[in-house]
Amino acid sequence: MGSSSLLPATSASAYSIGVFLFALCFLFHLPNATAGVTRHYQFDINLKNVTRLCQTKSIVTVNGQFPGPPIFAREGDRVVVKVVNHVQNNITIHWHGIRQLRSGWSDGPAYVTQCPIQTGQSYTYNFTITGQRGTLFWHAHISWLRATLYGPIIILPKPNVPYPFAKPYKEVPMIFGEWFKADTEAIINQALQTGGGPNVSDAYTINGLPGPLYNCSAKDTFKLKVKPGKTYLLRLVNAALNDELFFSIANHTLTVVDADAVYVKPFETDTILITPGQTTNVLLKAKPYYPKASFVMAARPYVTGQGTFDNSTTTGILEYISPSSIKSTSKLPIFGATLPPLNDTSAATNFTLKFRSLANKQYPANVPKNVDKRFFFTVGLGTNPCPKNHTCQGPNGSMFSASVNNVSFALTTIALLQAHFTGQSNRVYSPYFPYFPIHPFDYTGNNTINNTNVISNTTNLVVLPFGTSVELIMQDTSILGAESHPLHLHGYNFFVLGQGFGNYDPINDPAKFNLVDPVERNTVGVPSGGWVAIRFRADNPGVWFMHCHLEIHTSWGLKMAWLVLDGKLPNQKLPPPPSDLPKC
């Protein structure tokens, strides 16, 4: 085999034991044929009582597991997942980062590519993994249900194709999340009703476990057991709702080898920054000897906004398996991890700028050299007036809003892709999303504008002919304070050409773009008080959501969609919808 055992070496988590058993079954049945195979899964959406932080609550799960079960596949495999909804909530599942080439009906965002799966109904997602290998993840894509509905997608290379780095001894999924004592649906409903900021989470988690720094959580600690001298591949996923995270392991250096299921030029680092929606594969080289100590693995937020946030730290423990010749009777010392300050934008930027594509013959970086259409999107927060006879808790008695080019995107009650495919777009959406800000201003200056109101709450799409080469500049604004925004594009990877602080300079900044080996991602952080430039080729027909992966910003309207038209050839057209596509 060209890849290592998928054994998540831990003894502290029922989730990890589930991954272990699933991995064993998967590995025993892994075919050696060069052609892709079809892998079938069933996701039963049901309620499960889970206890964290001294409190038991009923949460929405897949198959009663939290976090949810992993999807295992090889590059080139077809994945078929039947989702059956047994709860009262409407449900959709998004396969985050999967290209979904000509399978847009399976992308999953509610009211964009499908109507939700209602209680007692089912829907079968069907897609092929093309040109991707590494780690992605799946999660609910309706309201805030992804707080507990998420799990990893582990994509191995094709049979007999090795990793472009030394084969690791074992592989370990590590998913960061947020735990709320309260019902997250109640939290977002209250925030949208009052116009104020939402209540924040009560803990961060690693594989669903908060760790010993939280009340009643010593037993709920993720433990990674390693052998001296062995190399482990950690598959990191940030599934948190609203927080970018710094991550570090005490007294250990990590080597980054993959981002968003794309190999990168390896580089060493003491600290990882990972935004919601991003995945990062890193190599952990265990010490060559038994250290007679354990080591803290810690994650806490990187904070740029002015609102309240969960100022806590989740921890796990890296434990070395002692040789049989050593009998330890005393408690081992534990070394603490060092993380950057919460607002360390310099550390965040220095880490982000290290990413480069392999850009070699086997894994080329096919950056569009010529640009057909250029776009400039402002992204940031604003306000809407408080309705009459209503008390609002946003800035100066208003309601928080968020927008792209000052347009707060409003989802309809009909799926956009369905409306497009059936020719009913006139009453559902407009094809006139602004390519540039309607009213340009000093985007990152102090007190930039007196009026913070978002101009419109509409459903406008950008329409792209098939094959269009797109360059997009995304510019943060300081209308309500500068803030980092992790933007995720569905259905595509894009190349990150460059980034900077302040206002984008269209005359001088393009000369600094990396067109040789830029990193290829599906989620990128727009720097706080800055900009980022990306390019992609519109080679996948359908309607593709793009939104901030801070869930509260998406709820407030920081989202939009691209409509990519069919091409001329049969393999450039979107097939008809499946017969079991849910109806609104």
Task: Give an account of the 3D structure.
With 584 residues, the chain is mainly beta. The chain is built from five helices and 33 strands. It has a six-stranded mixed β-sheet, with no helix packed on it. Strand 1 (38-52) and strand 2 (55-62) form a beta hairpin. The relative contact order is 0.13. Mean pLDDT is 93; it is low at 1-14. It is found in: Secreted, Extracellular space, Apoplast. Pfam families: Cu-oxidase, Cu-oxidase_2, Cu-oxidase_3. It comes from Papaver atlanticum. Residues 47-158, 171-321, 440-566 form the Plastocyanin-like domain. GO terms for molecular function: copper ion binding; hydroquinone:oxygen oxidoreductase activity.
